[in-house]
């Protein structure tokens, strides 16, 4: 089963893959299925759903149980039972079938219009009756209320055959020289016929008079279309009571409202081929039109393309299974194609497993690779001299170019450029020379910022590349080429300060790590050169040596770090002494500060005390508050701590309290002095 997608619409081709011949035995079929993966994976929805050579027409009965197809060679009709997923019967005919119609709900009543002016009737058991019409017929329609068959063909007359009376009735005389197609409206039974002059005549079967005439040839010519010759009507289909779609022999589809003589929309297939079939899809308001090359689905309101399909062989007829997303085609090939498009509708009830199958495929999508095809543009075709193949079956149009067979592409390329091998050989030689040049000593362009770091990274990168080549490992990306670290080698703000304390303390470690890496690389190279990797004893010796070397490295690194720290301390002492000398030499100048209104100046000791308090931890500050009596911490019955604070008084409150305290003291002294005077006066009276 092949899956294609256009405009995000998935199309499943259920008839893809090779079919096995009928004359093969079951044993050989099973053997082929074991060998060939394509045969094993193919889906045979209906057994032997094919014709011996070509299939011309395909239709579905009204009950949906039977699919009938006609084809050659020899001329025959085959009926397939969908409930049994196999062929119901096959009947051979005397001449090829132009078209046929199923009059009953099942296969019990069928009418065939044949090439030799014959009209053949079949019943459930087989052939029933055969008659002839005066001229060669091309299409016919059935009028259910009156049981009349209307035949159009190579004549200006429309022949009427009444099936109830069993005789021909008076024919309808038209203005056309020939008629190609006809259709009967299923709602009000208006009869319409398309002529070779590009006109559509509408007749009322009740009065047998013409009630309308549409000039479709004139309406099909628009500013965007290019038409060669007079377009004739090649397809005709009614949709409901008021809509009608008309297909022309030049590849245009016109959608009409019967109340207007102007088309609602004109859709061009751009292939210049006659329209073979027109179908209506009511769930999504789509029109399915087909010529011999392509099947297009487009919106009937806007004309926007929905999706399209290009079968491998030319198309003769298209049939849409009712109320589903299944589409069947009759082709210029033995096999009749079956397509399933889940967007159009569900699978028919007789093959409902398709829904589950397509859901599983959507959950596990597989990438489609065109191994046997080459995509070429129009310019490539002109360079190869294959522009004349555009429009043929060797090229399949896709996007802005075409797909062509890879074998044909290689042959055409060899003929167009016979010296391609010499050019390929020269290119290979040039690549080898460039590789050898790359191994030479090259001048390295260092960045402006962090030159030493860049040089170190380049050296490490070269060592890592040699190591990865020997070990067959992937090279890691370089920091110099990474855009994320680009600014580090361009912006001067990122310059590494080698005199900083951090760099001087880390530099011994970095240098030792690089030396350690170099030693490891040398050890590995020696082991590989001597071929002693598989021996156990040398490996043990190497590990002991490495452990002793690592311990020596650690000791040396510790000593270097200690030296750096001593140097840093000495530098700090020198800096402090220089600062003291500078402070002594500088003369202190008096500075004046302005005090805000309402505030009093205090000594600088208070601010110093506050700074000291702020530097202390919370625990120390709490202990100090406890000593001063402003904080009281006690344990509660629950087990938690309870802290009570006494807020510090502001400056105004403190001044007010001091004034009140002084006032109280003054009053006390006055009271004492008054009481003392009274006691002295009392004593004087007693003495007198």
Automatic annotation (TrEMBL):
Gene Ontology CC entries for this record: 90S preribosome; small-subunit processome
Keyword check for Nucleus: yes
Region (Disordered): 528-557, 635-688
Record bears the keyword Coiled coil: yes
Composition bias, Basic residues: 664-688
Biased composition (Acidic residues): 528-538
Domain Nucleolar protein 10-like second stretches: 369-417
Gene Ontology BP terms: maturation of SSU-rRNA from tricistronic rRNA transcript (SSU-rRNA, 5.8S rRNA, LSU-rRNA)
Residue ranges constituting the NUC153 domain according to the UniProt record: 482-508
Intracellular or extracellular location(s): Nucleus, Nucleolus
UniProt-recorded name of the protein: Nucleolar protein 10
Taxonomic lineage: Eukaryota, Metazoa, Chordata, Craniata, Vertebrata
Family: Belongs to the WD repeat NOL10/ENP2 family.
Chief place where the protein resides: nucleus
